[in-house]
Design a protein that fits this description.
Number of domains: 1
Number of strands: 4
Helix content: 10-25%
Distance between the termini: 31 Å
Number of helices: 1
Structural class: alpha+beta
Order of helices and strands: EEHEE
Strand content: 35-45%
Length: about 60
């Protein structure tokens, strides 16, 4: 298991503000929901990426 496979990024007004990495997708998705609840405000962008495939798994808000 790659401990840094799932990368979560929080950007505020286009600038990186916080990052996190997890080895399990279920944990990363739980953190994604937490971050949206804690940091999801105007100007924020939260993205979860599978670093092994380069795929964006989910993002908030839906539109950049």
């Amino acid at each position: 298991m790659n401990p840094e496979r799932y990368h979560l990024t929080l950007s505020r007004d286009g600038r990186p503000a916080m990052h996190g990495w997890w080895g399990r997708e279920t944990v990363a998705r739980d953190r994604f929901r937490d971050w949206v609840g804690d940091w999801g405000r105007s100007g924020a962008r939260i993205t979860l990426v599978d670093e092994d495939t380069g795929t964006v798994l989910t993002a908030w808000p839906d539109e950049p």
